[in-house]
Amino acid sequence: MSSVSPIQIPSRLPLLLTHEGVLLPGSTMRTSVDSARNLQLVRSRLLQGTSLQSTILGIIPNTPDPASDAQDLPPLHRIGTAALAVQVVGSNWPKPHYTLLITGLCRFQIVQVLKEKPYPVAEVEQLDRLEEFPNTCKTREELGELSEQFYKYAVQILDAVSLEERFKMTIPLLVRQIEGLKLLQKTRKHKQDDDKRVIAIRPVRRITHIPGTLEDEDEDEDNDDIVMLEKKIRTSSMPEQAHKVCVKEIKRLKKMPQSMPEYALTRNYLELMVELPWNKSTTDRLDIRAARILLDNDHYAMEKLKKRVLEYLAVRQLKNTLKGPILCFVGPPGVGKTSVGRSVAKTLGREFHRIALGGVCDQSDIRGHRRTYVGSMPGRIINGLKTVGVNNPVFLLDEVDKLGKSLQGDPAAALLEVLDPEQNHNFTDHYLNVAFDLSQVLFIATANTTATIPPALLDRMEIIQVPGYTQEEKIEIAHRHLIPKQLEQHGLTPQQIQIPQLTTLDIITRYTREAGVRSLDRKFGAICRAVAVKVAEGQHKEAKLERSDVTEGEGCKEHILEDVKPGSISDTTDLALPPEMPILIDFHALKDILGPPMYEMEVSERLSQPGVAIGLAWTPLGGEIMFVEASRMDGEGQLTLTGQLGDVMKESAHLAISWLRSNAKKYHLTNASGSFDLLDNTDIHLHFPAGAVTKDGPSAGVTIVTCLASLFSGRLVRSDVAMTGEITLRGLVLPVGGIKDKVLAAHRAGLKRIIIPQRNEKDLEEIPGNVRQDLSFVTASCLDEVLNAAFDGGFTVKARPGLLNSKL
Q1: CB 194: neighbour CB atoms within 10 A?
Q2: Is 334 part of any known ligand binding site?
Q3: Is 699 known to be catalytic?
């Protein structure tokens, strides 16, 4: 035995608490320093100290504790290792931390903790000397490399001070490890099949346990899970390419230590691959008559939409291999686009899954993340297929017009592959990295407008317009669906409340102004809550009457929610009879519950002077009526436009004034001084009320011309006329869009005559018959026809300014 000088450690040592492993005498390890106590120790002893003794630390193994920076010192292990700090590496980003390279010298035992702050210092007793066992240093170092995996066994070895006890614990461990390596080498030479290889490898993993200790049950269970996962991969019906990838990944998984971060990622990937419905599908119900009845019961009106769904069912009945269509329902909010998607799935007997796309601005939400990123996951399409468990569900892509775009990519572009019937049979998610067939999925997208949908994406979808409802349709929907739903939600019955159709019409016309029925549904909810209060109070009064045996007197018919002044009712009012049932909701009850009407018919009042006309506008929320007001004053010939107008609408205003100036002599239009130059010493101000709302589009051209013609002629526009159409500099009227929504808005406002471009006459076929009967339509190809229809008796030529003339 060579002569080695004994190592003497100081009797007082600063203690460094580490949870990254157990340092044994003679071994070397790196440890990170990020807790407050350890940081203070490094700064005070290693960075500022100059003597050799200042680099000797006491290393104490400590279990991971999320509250390591707490004020109280955690319980300390009795045995530690004196170590020499060989290297210190530090950084201040993202927060201060150091990495130490330390070498174990010898064991010590804590006698007494002398202080705890700012870092612990203890009086220690040296337990062994390194020169007594010079040939065992290599064995200690090799065993220390295993300490990260076998933390608790390394601690037991650290606590073994006696040489004989240490040999008893370490030699069997090393012998069994050698035997395991020999067995593993033998199995590789024979190249056995996968099942025999798993059986041969599993004992190797088990022999690493120290004799006399409990086996790692979690590891055994994990090994069993891997065997079951491998069996599922073999028996799955995934395509050949996906199967090859899974076999390759399961082989890598067997060779990985469980402590590696990639182990959990690979296992999650394989579990997803097994759970995906590669060939699992549901059988469609192809009974056309039953489907028609179901759609009619769930949704009133929407004839075009229901017709398209029935067409798909009919073709699917004739050809089972039909690819799923890509439908896009475009319409204002509250008309039932999302609920129709659910009904389609219910009609087909398919699973339904909704994907909300509003505000999505990362293409990884669609395509998934690559598995090289931390926290990677599949996209919403693949995740939805895993959720429903079949490969032919109905996917509702809600609010596809509200997709965003950011530095993380364009999700609308990622949807191009998903919504292309010629490509989606080979859709590749970044997380899966293998193709998945989406051709059997029925995609239904919803949007409020097509203006914000990229043209390439819009080209891949079949657009089905879902316009707003008429008043008659809203009444039917209310009494078929909305009122029964609200009664059920509020615990009421038809024997307790009655809402006549006339009351429903009042709510529609005076308390709501929308294309859909969401606000109408909320109004019914408010009525039901008010009635629920009265019913509950009535039940309380009935109980009091029964207890007091009050049987005389007749209850007066009570008006719902009648305001009662405090102190106006005597003390015996508590025994009054409850309200008669059912409670009838009339106009007076509406006023008590919902307050005064929010919308009153103000059309005739606003058209009581020249220079006002009514236009029709389309918005993503449906059609709206739009007032245009004009006034003139002395000035320098300037045209002022207000009301938050877009560039297109401003151009329409300039077109209108130019056309009127060029035709002023024809219609004998003059300014205040009698000149045919309408802007000679005259300023014109055009205003579009509701200035907080941005307005744009070409369809206001005819309305602006009519408004200015009324201003300069001094004649009133008919109070029951609304109009829409684009104009040219030569006075032609060009077609516009959204005719049905605009006509429905005019009908809701009580207007009777609608002026539309002649080339939009074909769009009148979409107007419900009852609405067409209530309205009079005038088709115009030029501005002369528009003006003749907008004024009583036509827009005649004047012999003298300010006087009406005969009809042209």
Answers
A1: 13
A2: yes
A3: yes
